[in-house]
Amino acid sequence: MRLPVLLLDADSSAAAQLAAQLRHAGFAIEVVSTPSEALGALEFRVCSIVVVVDDFVDDEEFQQCLTEL
To answer: By percentage, how much of the chain surpasses pLDDT 90?
Structure first.
């Protein structure tokens, strides 16, 4: 059994589209829209990889959350 991929994307429609493509390729996907949701998800499950798609990479709070991830 493969570990799921955690997809972090604030754009829900783009995230749904990417998740559908990844599922079609055989990946199990968990989609979240904020870094805090990602941290919460990782408290209860193990993921093989975290994919971050976001425009806030220059935001200091966002960078801190990525460090915690």
So the answer is: 26
